[in-house]
From TrEMBL:
Pfam families: Porphobil_deam, Porphobil_deamC
Origin organism lineage: Bacteria, Pseudomonadati, Bacteroidota, Cytophagia, Cytophagales
This protein's UniProt keywords: Porphyrin biosynthesis, Transferase
Domain annotation Porphobilinogen deaminase N-terminal: ranges: 7-207
Enzyme class: transferase
Name of the protein: Hydroxymethylbilane synthase
């Protein structure tokens, strides 16, 4: 047991991020370590009047924590795996992924009888291009309303009537005890979540002592979740995706084999490219499915999407 290890965990300071940081802390404590939190307000948290796709730069939630990792001001940083850019600097590796929470999206509303499948139009709050594209594709009768801010702010907006319903990740809603507002659980197959959704990733500096690094990994990493998320992230990297484009991807591990289903939706919802693959090695499954999507025109579609997003700002 590593006795004197007090781990400084860098985190964003939203309630969800702090929950996740304490979750990591508890895993470390179970393994005999202690922890403290170093919480910061990132650019992504401060700029709330523009959509994430318009802020543009990848990593608006991660850059400042990375600077602190390099400076040795924190030992590790925790991130929602889905908020991470698809590629990271070589000196700042991801060393663990926590056991993934149920990865699907949910609909929240103050009106319990609301359903996405209803024909009466709804104003749906979301800040994600993937969810917008999904709505346009599957439920064109509804209107997407821009909804940034932390989960508590968004719930307030819902209560104020700024929208009729919101689309969110179940994981965050569950962690924030907001399940009472869930009116619908969306099917994982029909409505595939974002890459990494539901898991917490731990990043460190490559200069962190290797014994400490190993102890943190042993305490926090969940092997099956890691395999799945590595497959999903390899796919995203090959597509040059990121959290601001409407790419979806979800892998599950069945009898030692990774089953990955992923795709890209056009913003208008009228084009959908999708594919799936099975294999034992995470990166090759990710690359295999990405290659298949590229054959079907994913890169051209993503190029058009980026131009559209840039012109909307
Ligand atoms: N982009 C914001 C974000 N990042 C992680 C989660 C939820 C928790 C998770 O996926 O682990 C959320 C909220 C949401 O999309 O509803």
């Amino acid at each position: 047991m590593q006795l004197k290890n007090n781990i400084r965990i860098g985190t964003r300071n939203s309630a969800l991020a702090l929950w996740q940081a304490h979750h990591i802390g508890r895993l470390l404590e179970t393994a005999g370590m202690t922890y403290e939190l170093v919480a910061i307000n990132t650019i992504g948290d401060k700029i709330l009047d523009r959509s994430l796709s318009k802020i543009g730069a990848k990593g608006v939630f991660t850059e400042e924590l990375e600077t602190m990792l390099r400076a040795g001001e924190i030992d590790i940083a925790q991130h929602s795996a889905k908020d991470l850019p698809s590629t990271l600097a070589d000196d700042l590796p991801l060393i663990a992924f926590t056991e993934r929470e149920a990865a699907h999206d949910v609909v929240l509303s103050m009106n319990p009888s609301i359903r996405l499948g209803q024909s009466a139009p709804l104003r749906i709050g979301t800040s994600s291009t993937r969810r917008r594209a999904f709505l346009a594709h599957q439920y064109p009768q509804h209107v997407a309303v821009e909804m940034r801010g932390n989960l508590q702010t968004r719930l307030e907006k819902l209560k104020n009537g700024d929208c009729d319903a919101m689309l969110l990740a179940y994981a965050g809603v569950h962690r924030m005890d907001m399940e009472a507002y869930i009116v619908e659980h969306l099917d994982l197959q029909a409505y595939v979540p974002a890459v990494g959704q539901g898991s917490v990733a731990i990043q460190c500096s490559s200069r962190l002592d290797s014994n400490i690094r190993e102890a943190i990994r042993a305490a926090c990493n969940h092997a099956a979740s890691e395999s799945c998320i590595v497959a999903e992230r390899s796919l995203l990297a090959m597509l040059d995706g990121g959290c601001s484009v409407p790419v979806f991807g979800h892998a599950k591990l069945v009898a030692g084999q990774i089953h990955l289903h992923a795709g890209v939706l056009s913003l208008s919802g009228d084009q959908k490219i999708e594919s799936s693959g099975i294999g034992a090695e995470p990166k090759s499954v990710g690359n295999q499915v990405a290659t298949e999507l590229i054959k079907q025109g994913a890169q051209q579609l993503l190029k058009e999407i980026r131009v559209q997003l840039a012109s909307q700002s």
